[in-house]
Amino acid sequence: MIELKDISVDFDGFKAVDKVSLKIEKADAFGIVGFSGAGKSTLVRCINLLQKPTEGEVIVNGEDFLKLSDKELRKRRKKIGMIFQHFNLLNNLTVIDNVIFPIRKDQKSKKEKLEKAQKLLELVGIGDKANSYPRELSGGQKQRCAIARALASDPEILLCDEATSALDPKTTKQILALLQEIKDKIGLTIVIITHQMEVVKDLCNKVAVMQDGKVVEEGTTLEIFSNPKNKLTKDFVETSTNVNQTIEEVKNNISALGPDESLVKLSYVGESTTEPVINEIYEKFSIKTNVLAGNIEFITGTPVGNLIVTFKGDKEKIDQAVEYLISGGTNVTFLGDSNGIL
Ligand SMILES: Nc1ncnc2c1ncn2[C@@H]1O[C@H](COP(=O)(O)OP(=O)(O)OP(=O)(O)O)[C@@H](O)[C@H]1O
């Protein structure tokens, strides 16, 4: 549905976006992650040509946007809503008038527009705030109003630029749940720029990681969380799982390991929960497992687990047990033994 082909954006010789190609399918919730200045906003603004790329093609629903006339482009843009970190509401208009604003020139009667706006306010959960002014709303309510306004033109695509960055964690969860609900209800395609991996985890089915204007890694959210390859992706995933921090804490607090003990990290994806595996390696190899720390998360419904354990037993048997675990799809990282902790 959205295809960005070899997009580059050059600001006076500085490449803010550098040959990026992305495919976003209908009803995807596509996350774009990266540090400040990575080029996320510039890239996303190319989708509705608020930013004209210096090079490349922007294909939306099979149409080459760069070949459209200004009039045609204005019409297509109406089907692409946008919400922002700082809401960008018009402060001198009431909440309902903010929602009507993008459709104020439509061929409908005033009554129809009011009814539509009120329905949208109900949908986003602030039906009772229609006659309030933005200054009378909380941050979460302001973003709800901005979402209602973005939906007024019946968009097929919603671009969200750090839409939850100014909100506290609880309100962030509520807004993400609302976006998910709307997405499911009207089949909206969502492109969401964020530096919060929690946002990706809660809402997105796919994610691209940007650095210095380039996409350095992309995949399904499950792939990115369970098996990040790029160093930056690993750092981002770590911010939400804290596995490395947990490992450091375990290492700092563990007393010396015995000659028959090894410290390892077990990582797995999917239904192969470790409990039966731990029982099996005890039965097969007489290896005793002691779980020191663990974290299991559900990414788009699939469990992703990280356990820090000690194995106790004959060295050769531990090696066999590790091989057995790896052959069953568990990732095993050796962290130390009686000779020292890595
Ligand atoms: N209109 C512009 N003129 C010149 N440079 C620009 C312009 N817009 C963005 N840049 C530069 O392009 C780079 C990418 O900016 P962009 O806003 O796309 O990054 P970002 O990843 O969205 O960052 P943030 O998360 O801080 O919004 C930055 O170095 C920025 O200073």
From TrEMBL:
Any one Gene Ontology molecular-function term assigned to this protein's record: ATP hydrolysis activity
Keyword GTP-binding: no
Domain ABC transporter intervals: 2-237
Hydrolase listed as a keyword: no
Pfam family, one: NIL
InterPro entries: AAA+_ATPase, ABC_transporter-like_ATP-bd, ACT-like_dom_sf, MetN_ABC, MetN_ABC_transporter-like, NIL_domain, P-loop_NTPase
SMART domains assigned: AAA, NIL
Signal peptide segment: none
UniProt keywords, alphabetically: Amino-acid transport, ATP-binding, Cell membrane, Membrane, Nucleotide-binding, Translocase, Transport
Family affiliation: Belongs to the ABC transporter superfamily.
This protein's name: Methionine ABC transporter ATP-binding protein
Native source organism of the sequence: Anaerococcus porci
